[in-house]
Amino acid sequence: MSTTRTRTPLVRGRVGELMPRRDAEPKVTGAFAYSSDLEAEGMLFAVTVRSPHPHARIAAIDTAAAVATAGVHAVLTHADVPGRKTVGMHRADQPVLVVDVVRYQGEPVVIVAADDLETARRAAVLVVVTYEVLEPVADPERGEVLRDVRIRHGDQSLGADVVVSGSYEVGMQDQAFLGPESGLAIPDGDGGVDLHVATQWLHLDQEQICAALDLPPAKVRVHLAGVGGAFGGREDVSMQIHACLLALRTGRPVKMVYTREESFFGHVHRHPAWMRYEHGATPEGDLVYVRAEILLDGGAYASSSPAVVSNAACFAAGPYRVQRATIDARVVMTNNPPCGAMRGFGAVQVAVAHEAQMDLLAAALGIDPVDLRVRNALKTGDRMITGQVIDGPAPVRELLEGLRAMPLPLERGSLRADLRELPGGVANTTHGEGVRRGVGYAIGFKNMGFAEGFDDYSTARVRVSLVNGEPLVEVHTAACEVGQGLVTVLEQIARTELGFEHVVVLPADTTVGSAGSSSASRQTWMTGGAVKAACEAVRERLHELAADRSVEETVEHHHRPTFPLDPETGQGDAQVALCFAAHRAVCDVDTDLGLVRVVEIATTQDVGRIMNPAQCEGQIQGGIAQGLGLALMEEIKTENGLVRNPNFTDYLIPTILDMPPVRLAISETPHPDAPYGLNGVGEPPTIASTPAIAAALRAATGRPVTRVPVRPDDLI
Amino acid sequence: MQTPAPFGYERATSVDGAIASLQRLGPEARIIAGGHSLLPMMKLRLANPEHLIDINDLVELSYIREQDGEIRIGALTRHVALLKSELLARHFPVFADAETVIADPVVRNRGTIGGSLCQADAAEDLSAVCTAVKAKVVIRGAAGERVVGMEDFHVGPYQTAVGAGDVLTEVRLPLRPGSGSAHEKVERRAGDWAIAAASAAVWIAAGRITDVGIGLSAVGLTTIHLTRAEDLLRGQAPSEDLFAEAGAIAAADCSPGADGRGPIDYKRHLVGVLTHRALRRAAARAASQEA
């Protein structure tokens, strides 16, 4: 006997559900096509001739021998750039190919396309560039100031009874994405080109390619290829223009894939920072003032340095109420590697300093470090040091108290421990001698989206049609899936808004309006918002849907306007919204050898709305791994402008053996301005995880630990 | 560069055949065993041998056995066999200590003790281990076999007593009562070269150290044999103070260079701590064997 029940159609994969990513299995099995896997019939291979010197004048470029090599189809220099000879995100100051002066090691001088890679490489060796070597400016104190941001908030004469000061330093971190810069340019035979490339912002690439090639946008179509990680390092162009130049010159498809070593010279890095801080407080523990001098080394070109230094200044005091702030942040230009966008974008560097200062202050006051932070926690309605009143959520106190309430990991047992659980992991022979445990807390914040008056928007085109009587939703945007899971979230949004099961997110390209950059923790807010709005517009018209008639809407989603910072006082409503995360690190240190094992990271983060639980947790875990890397090992080392470790043998990134379990509690305080109340997720995990580890190391060793990455010899 | 320059290749079917090939092909011929040092150097074009003589078929060189008061280890014995040998663990636990932290399982499945010793990289672990346990190696050439102690084995950076036409065939570890041994190492991460490593072996009788061996990796141009510290320890009763003093001598007697793995002072500091710890564990193991 059977019973009959009314079945309500249940469409799975809506916002908030744990929907698996469609790219997960192909990525795990190796079937996923990254930008370096692209092929086209008759394609040529291109390589780049780079300057070995960080600073030099080019006296002559002789390409004759390379041109004469059998199998070589093009050898191009700056003279072959038909349009604007320079590129750049904020200002076009970086040559497409060096014109006269080399400003950093590895700068592209000549590009070569040949029948195969080996021929291209051999021809590149035959290019003779005559350099007049110049002394590099490697000391940032001697660099030319690109931008300085002054913040003068509150009564500048305010002093305090309890004062602590310190100097802090952050090394140059690399995004260390695993997929090197790569792409394939295919000429269309009609003077135009299609570029398939791993990037973060298709339309910005298109704009810069068009300028350099002197072509209208319709002639340059940029398509997103499989991205092997980005983290800010793919916002500036690398090989995009070069591949297009060669494709148009030769009339053949041109593939360009950087080697691992080249990749270290192919993208900008996180700015190294030198910071002097002074905090003043009342004897009860109320923050009175924060003074900070912040120096960032922007390297050879501007990239996004002007915005990074702005962030460093705006978030310099941490998420705390301060009566007076006096911040002087400057970014300078040198002949060191260019620095620009990287996950956390200026907020990472200052968090190392402001959180160390809060611990110093707590010690000076005899107050528990978490109590001190809670006491001064920013909340909704407070003013930031830029004078902006926070009208969105600011759950600083809640995050700190939630974090403190989380259980601590067990003490290391007396049983012989697994090597992997001891300081240094399997890479050493610590057997428990001299091991001491430390616990450290930190909290950080930064902005979602771009700041200071940038009119940011994203575009979505949503189309519903009937296929065999079933509704099919197609979502088309130019938003870049860089591994964060955007495609899945856009699919969930469309399904939620329209209630149809079959949703296809089309490949991202420039045939739809700009989505802006997959950066600044903004893409789900901005493009998710655009898709939601486009779905709503389609929904209004669903009655028109018929077998021979689809419904399509294209919508631009803008966030609310922001405003510039006053150049004298740094005051202004510059930010769209704020994201917060707190971290607690538990570290075991072999205090004889200076070796570290991070035992656990606990974190509380408010994400506004969990769009997809697995992806949300993945972003948090990944961000913490990057924060751990900066705390303990990741640093590009330079010497007089030369990079000393452009490889993964000597540039160390955390592996699964270095990464501890993460205890996480995600909270959802809806942001009133955002679609679904969501907030940015990607960057906050990288901000306070680093200073939390530094604090734990101070607690374990009693050493000052004022620099990250922490070196073993800093801990003994 | 990711591919080696062209080279000739042959597979040896006997040790004498390999030696004959070496003699015939001259100094540009090299023996290849596990290949985990030679092949990367060839890919980087740091080594460009004209001929490779592959000895991986010579299974007669793969063994660990007790014979005539010695542990004898065939030159083609893989790291993984050294790691898992109960015989070796019973007499010389220093091998298992070292093998746990040598490279990674993939390399350990392939790399050999003979290859490690002949490569003679100063950062290599087994050279220090063999120095500590006072091993002897058997070298066979056209003129026959000779036995060379570790004290005479290293003749310069990457240079050993194994001549151009020679093959290292066996490592011999003399068995003496009351022994204990240990290896301590710090590397930046699994699989990297050591920042520093210390191997120690002690022989204890009636509460006195009758003999001791200490070898250091990665803190000099070759493996360092710490004779001055050994002289201090010989004849003494083991104690924490004594081992600390030996550590201080070790820190003074090594000659590390500054590089991406750390500054000189830190490396000397590591050598002091690691030598101290290795001696402490070696002595504890000797004591537990006595009991």
Structural summary, described in words:
The complex is a heterodimer of chains A (716) and B (291). Chain A is an alpha+beta fold and 716 residues long. Chain A folds into three domains: 41-135 and 176-266, Alpha-Beta Complex (Aldehyde Oxidoreductase, domain 3); 269-410 and 418-450 and 566-714, Aldehyde oxidase/xanthine dehydrogenase, molybdopterin binding domain (Aldehyde Oxidoreductase, domain 4, 2-Layer Sandwich); 457-558, Aldehyde Oxidoreductase, domain 4, CATH 3.30.365.10. Helices cover 23% and strands 27% of the residues of chain A. Chain A contains 14 helices and 28 strands. Chain A has a seven-stranded mixed sheet, sandwiched between helices. Chain A has a six-stranded mixed sheet with strand order 9-17-16-15-10-28. In chain A, strand 16 (287-297), helix 7 and strand 17 (324-333) form a beta-alpha-beta unit. In chain A, helix 4 packs across helix 5. In chain B, a hairpin with a 6-residue loop joins strand 11 and strand 12 (194-205). Chain B has helices at 15-25, 38-43, 79-84, 86-91, 94-100, 105-108, 113-119, 125-132, 227-233, 240-253, 264-290; strands at residues 8-11, 29-32, 51-54, 64-67, 70-74, 136-141, 144-149, 154-156, 159-160, 167-174, 179-187, 194-205, 208-217, 224-225. Chain B is of the alpha+beta class and 291 residues long. The mean pLDDT of chain B is 95. Chain B is built from eleven helices and 14 strands. In chain B, 52% of the residues are buried. Classes of the chains: A alpha+beta (716), B alpha+beta (291). At the A-B interface, loops of A face strand 11 and helix 11 of B.
